[in-house]
Amino acid sequence: MRILLICILSTFIFSTSIAQNPSFKPLESFDAIFARAKKENKPIFFEAYLPNCSHCMAYDVTLKNPKIKQFLDKNVLAYQLDISKRENGLFLRKQKVYVPSTPSFVMLGPDGKPWDVQTMGDELNTVDGILTSLRKAIDPQKRDEATLKKYQQGAREFEEMLGLANFTRMTLDTVQNIEIVQQITEALPKDKYESELGFLLIRKVMLDNNNPLFDHFINNLAVYRKTNDSVTVRQVAENTLMSTLFSSRSRKFNPERIAGIKFGLKQIGLTDAQIANRCIVLEVLIDLDKDQLATATDRIKSYYQGKEIPAKEKDFWCKWLTRKADPKNPCPLP
Predict the structure, then answer these.
(1) Where is the signal peptide (predicted)?
(2) pLDDT tens for residues 16-36?
(3) Are both 132 and 196 inside the same structural domain?
(4) Which domain holds residue 88?
(5) Residue 76's domain is classified under what CATH number?
(6) Are the C-beta atoms of residues 181 and 208 closer than 8 Å to each other?
């Protein structure tokens, strides 16, 4: 009976997963897709999905509508992209596209550069909703790529900047994202900081903690927990702090900036030991960037509190501590 039940469940899962949708072309090699796009001078549309995603399955039904198929056939080269497959995830990464949730609509120009990236919620899962999203994604005046160009030329429309914050996050344009989010948070009235919009900005588009909205958030976590799931509030805070800490720009941070990150990690409940574990590598690298070898060495020794350093960890530190020294000089760690 148990084996029969497993077989039935397996059959059900298989039957409800996403099969080839007639509105889309069969996925071929990415080189072939780009060659076709260049030849036909058409943008490339990918619906990024996961085979076990219930929202994706619901979208798949709507995407089979003849009106949508007609639009796709006429205007784009359309494919479905299963991002559970490693090669597909690597492809998106190469095109500088990050998909935080599924389904997402990714529109690339014929040259492969991102035109528009949208995470698709249930509220858009209608024929009209999908067509509106697709039309916007290919519109040379309204697609995200065009809106970003207008922003770079001086446009500062608040609603457009909200969309751009999401676009720059999903296209891995961290520098532009930080700038846009900074301007949004400066324009957002303080009485909106604790609103649904304020929390959404932190949760969905914020990659750096150095702005007035996040400062308010990290100092008033209890307030946000009253209207949002407490686990989500903690995760949101941690995600922003860690994306800041692990960014390439972090090696330029001054001690005050790092202290602010440590304060935030303390606010969400991390112990001093956990905070030190997350920050030690960055702090040592900053010391070494300043040619402060003795300071870096003392920092490492303090981190281990007089205990013997495990062999692999010692090898790691010694490589950094001796990288500018004469190879014959011994590692300064005991």
Answers:
(1) 1-19
(2) 456 789 999 999 999 999 999
(3) no
(4) 18-139
(5) 3.40.30.10
(6) yes
